[in-house]
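Bench notes, afternoon.
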Amino acid sequence: MYSISAIHYVFLALLLTAALVSLGFGLRKYWQRISHGQAWFGKELTREAVLAKVNWATFIRRGLLLERLKKRPISGIAHNLLFFGAIIEILGHSAYGLSFVGIEVYQSGFGHYFMELAREIAGLMILVGILFFALRRLAPPERLTAAGYTRKGFSPMEALLLATALLGFIAEGFRLTNPEVHSQFEFVGNFIAGLLSGGEPQILAGGNLALWWLHMLFGCAFIALIGHTPMSHMVLGLTNSGLANKRAGINLAPIDFDAEPEDGEKEAELLLGANRISQLSQKYLMDASTCLWCGRCHEVCPAAQTGKALSPKSIMATCAEYMAQGKFDDESLIETIGKEAVFNCTTCAACIEECPVSNAPAEIVLELRRNFVMEQSDMPDTMAAANANLEKRGHPFVGTSANVEDWKQGLPFEVPLFEPGKTEYLFWLGCAVTYEERAQNIARAMARLLEAAGISWGVLEGPHCTGDPAKMMGNEMQFVEIAQGNIEEFQELQIHKVITTCAHCFNSFDRYYPQLGGEWQTIPHAVFIDELIKTGKLKVRQDGEKITFHDPCYLARHNGIVDETRNVVSSVGKLVEMPRHGKNSFCCGAGGGNYWGGQGGTARINDVRAEEAFATGADKIATSCPFCNLMLTSSASKHSEERKVFDIAELVLDKLENRPAAWDRTLA
């Protein structure tokens, strides 16, 4: 009298089919919006084109295992309880369908430990997870309301899921009042059954059927509404994580300025960035559709956290609103977001590293920046001056009195030029260590270390820049011109190994030059020094001096170089970590051309970072990028007249034991 007859399951199957159709239509709505963007999978949406874009590692780690949600443990646990509880319940309900083909799933160990115990625990997991989110709605963290955007529609869906779980337990309790049914593992159901004991059998049987149907109706309603509410992130987030770029950090798509239409094709418009939704790629529209407005990106954005106009959350929310309103070709998008916000971005990629569903707000910002610069010839005055100086003089440092030979002053040997076929390593100087007096010490220190280690090295004749400032300020044309010139010279000189002191130079060489035909091995000086110390070519003393290390964004976050820098610092002193370090480091504020800008807001980014460094009580602040060094040196002078900020090459040189006897033991 307590069994659910087959006819009920037939109706349930029809209802579930309708719910899945509704889910499909809801998701189709998102794809229709996304399809307005620039082709991302290729000219034709084929199975091969899609599979070529799939990143199985991020699909599993971020999509299935919810890796990035765990950065906030309590919220991460709640998400995991909900997600894995739901997975177990779905598998259990699916397994029950096997009983209709003669397989009794409630027998043996599988029935006891999975169909009963595991599903019972899974139901409690869902309840606990839902209750956490329900309570948090009462007092939401600031990030959920930051930038004036809050996703609506979660609470009704959470209430629906809560009701579904509760009804499932109550229906189970009614079922277990049947004296013919025994289950030692469904402990919640047994407890409820105990409360119902003594009731009329017919009423209990009717209650079992009614509550079973309510449980199923609520569950099907939840599935049907997923694609029409913010709960769509359950599908979109998983998909988007599976389509994440295979390389961390910012990955700007190249612009082919020489592209010609293929046979039978009309000449396509050359897009110099984007000023409206339809000019963004389909992947960026997928990002905007997937975004939950959770504000995690806002919490880590150095611009947002120092009161500037930029909020990556606002960028994503604005794009999503334009898409929802069908404003795909509305050119007001770029003005709505605003020039100030677009140029506030330091390209630190913290927003990309933090996003639990693998969105890339910084890349959207840079597409807008490209449009401002290359289409509208509009950028902040200080950046424009640096950009003009780069074009006229080959470097962006306006007003410098240094010349290209100044960095060599004080060196006790003649700096060798790179010789094709003879020299093994090119020591790439770049513009910062050439034209900024403070940064010149970094070049001198590294040259001494190379010489002390007996490395075959040389430099280029004349000043050079990778073009990174131009690219990250939005001037892709200028970057391509500079890069192509460097590539031609490198090929003529048969350069195969390059050592850089600048994190931005390394990133350009390693990430963007291969797109233009530049193929060689690029090694950050921190990595090279670490190897020299490990192999004994450099011998250093460790005296216990407390040193805190600031991770350059373009090494740690963009390129995953974290351990090598710490190895070097630990070899000469005692490493004292700042609260935000490694891939979670806070930016110095120089990136994206903001070394020549970065004004506005309630504080300077470098000042915030310097305060964090001084709070560790360390004797010295170390870094491994000249731009970080310059920014932190400027801020450190407000705390102490004594020099506090050093590049790791300077620290190693100061503690070097196997320096030639002729050298002066003080830094050049």
